[in-house]
Amino acid sequence: MYILGIESSCDDTSVALLDCSDDAFVVLAEKTAGQVDVHKKYGGVVPELAGRMHAENILPVVEEVMNEWREKMGKKNALPDVIAATTGPGLITGLLVGAEVAKNLSYLWNVPMIAMNHIEGHIHSVFINNHFPISSLQFPALCLIVSGGHTEIVLMRDFGEYDLLGKTRDDAAGEAFDKVGKLLGFEYPGGPKISKFAAEGNTTAIPFPRPMMSSDDYDFSFAGLKTAALYELRDRPLENEQEKKDFCASFEQAIVDVLVTKTKRAAKEFSVKTIILGGGVSANPKLRAGLQTMTQEISNVRLLIPSTNYSMDNGAMIAAAAYMRGKKKEFTAWQDIVVNPNWEVYDK
Ligand code: KG4
Ligand code: ZN
Which residues are in the Gcp-like domain (predicted)? Predict the structure, then answer.
């Protein structure tokens, strides 16, 4: 099944064409137009600017992907079997652009369309260009989704069947990384910069709190950790590069400890066979290593982690997530497509 995936829910206009089967999801063409340079001046994504940039970028990006794929296929007029576009959750300014373009293409090409959930996309990023085939996925699977907008643990009972176990009550993990990055003087997004500094720091230098790590639910809270970081910087300003690295390592470890501890407890309670990591923060090496070690401690659980190329928002994951829905012909007529900025993956 050839699937065109379109993602525009935040600050990346990303389009990909995948050849999907039960055995493999192969990316045949892809292109992303990022906007970080525009938003970093403001320390975060400005929705109005994001919408305008998506509108400028999306048609050239789609055209480039289609041309590259058609050339590979040796067919000038080749069309995909399915068009998948993110219709939520995310910024309405961006969602509208991607969804409208997808609707137009669906109408003009007479190709069926699937409205995709962004979080379901992140969950399926583990199958892209990966040796693990989707047909081997064993349920129940536990999904830890950690991004700039989301931090949640979702139980996946089957394809398309999700139950929420817990989510953040305030800031998302990526948001905490970005806000503390800003306090440290890093450009947006601060997450990757903190993890780079953390690699050479001492994780036990500062005893940051581990909010809600032992609470008997699966919710999270990172706003307090951000405040603790603020007070720490106010009371003991960093004096040199090594202290900055130690600060980053200690802060990062606090987030990783909370995420890994809660994932482990949920994995045991629900006797899951698979753990899936997804979302931008899945690029964090400490989190990846922490989950790997934890998974080895509980038997018969397979950990699936996206390749770092597909950790951040991308069109390929949207195409990947559409495959099982495409097989079941879960299409939506373009006239009925509605974007929903607050669409939760566990809402039908
Ligand atoms: O999934 P994503 O691309 O966009 C959203 O849907 O939010 O995630 C972006 C988030 C940002 O908060 C960014 O700082 C974080 O992922 N991030 C990281 C790392 N790489 C990206 N956080 C910690 N460590 C990283 N290496
Ligand atoms: Zn995302």
Answer: 27-319
Cis peptide bond N-terminal to 89, omega within 30: yes
Residue 83 CB–ligand 1 contact under 6 Å: no
141 lines ligand 1 (CB under 6 A): no
Closest residue by CA, ligand 1 atom 13:
191
Q: Which residues are known binding-site members for substrate?
A: 145-149, 178, 191, 284
162 and 93, same domain (yes or no): no
Find tokens 């919408």 and name the residue. 51
Is the minimum distance from the CB of 259 to ligand 1 under 6 angstroms?
Answer: no
Residues 103 and 210 in one domain: no
Environment of ion ligand 2 (residues, CB < 5 A): 147, 313
What SS3 class is residue 108?
helix
Which tens digits make up the pLDDT trace of 24-69? 999 999 999 999 999 999 988 999 999 999 999 999 999 999 999 9
In a shared domain, residues 157 and 227: yes
Query: What's the pLDDT at 95?
Result: 98
Measured in Å, residue 312 CA sits from the centre of ligand 1 at 6
Regarding the beta carbon of 284 and ligand 1, being less than 6 Å apart is answered yes
User: Can you say how many angstroms the Cα of residue 334 is from the centroid of all Cα atoms in its chain?
Assistant: 25
Question: What CATH number is attached to the domain comprising 199?
Answer: 3.30.420.40
In the three-class reduction of DSSP (H, G, I as helix; E, B as strand; rest coil), residue 85 is classed as strand
pLDDT interval class at 131 (50, 70, 90): confident
| Rounded Cα–Cα distance for residues 98 and 101 (Å) | 5
Res 348 pLDDT > 80: no
Binding site members for Fe cation: 118, 122, 313
Segments forming the whole domain that contains residue 91: 2-130+310-336
Give the model's pLDDT for residue 96: 98
